[in-house]
């Protein structure tokens, strides 16, 4: 049975709802929809705007209002919903929520941005270490891992429009790229790059300087899976024509 898993950094749930979000939601017809950067707490969003018939909605928001936050919409009732990584310094920012299914753990993550200086880069690398430990723990329990979301990293030069002028830019720093390599070498696969070897395939475009019409973007939104799950991958791709955010939705179809 095919299962469609979709991930989208919506850059504000309340804003994207006004830009045709539910029309897109109906059209994509996904089994699981993972959202990042919801920028809202549940009590700030009326049930009529937040809930969807036929789906369970699970939110994990930052303590700070209007900041970060993740959510999962799922047709199938998960065995469990896990909020956070179990570390307050990350969980207070509402960055990770996991839906546990019989065959795999669906981890929805909004990785920190390192652009605010050395301290934030260190925070991001610590987050990565905690995430790798979390994924490895799941694998050791005998379950597969799907890690989706906005990683805030373009891994290789092919993953951004202008690598030459961005080697000192947050999201393409050597330390970040090295960590992504370390993660993949630990037994995980960047599914899109495994299946698609061509460039000019991006998921984020700055609002400045007409970046999106020129396709001057970055690929920073991913689905990564453990190596053992790759033979169940049916399809993977980006919905670059879907507007409403500075990111576009990305999808993964699994035979589970």
Q: Keywords for this structure?
A:
single chain; 256 residues; alpha+beta; Deoxyribonuclease I, Chain A; six-stranded mixed beta sheet; 7 helices; 24% helix
Care to describe what's here?
- By secondary structure, the protein is of the alpha+beta class.
- It has a single domain, classed as Deoxyribonuclease I, Chain A (4-Layer Sandwich).
- 24% of the residues lie in helices and 26% in strands.
- The strands form 2 sheets. Strands 3-4-2-1-12-11 form a 6-stranded mixed sheet. A 6-stranded mixed sheet has the order 5-6-7-8-10-9.
- Helix 5 links the parallel strand 7 (104-110) and strand 8.
- Helix 5 packs parallel to helix 6.
- The chain is globular.
- 41% of the residues are buried.
What number of structural domains do the residues give?
Answer: 1
Radius of gyration: 17 Å
Count of discrete alpha- or pi-helical segments spanning 4 or more residues: 7
Helical content (DSSP H or I, runs of 4+): 10-25%
Mean pLDDT, to the nearest integer, reads: 96
> Biggest β-sheet, characterized?
6 strands, mixed
The CATH superfamily bears the name: Endonuclease/exonuclease/phosphatase
Number of strands: 12
- The coarse silhouette is globular
Strand order of the largest sheet: 3-4-2-1-12-11
Indicate the structural class.
Answer: alpha+beta
CATH fold name: Deoxyribonuclease I, Chain A
Distance between the termini: 6 Å
Order of helices and strands: EHHEHEEEHEEHEHEHEEE
Uncertain stretches: none
Beta-strand percentage range: 25-35%
CATH architecture: 4-Layer Sandwich
Briefly, what CATH class?
Answer: Alpha Beta
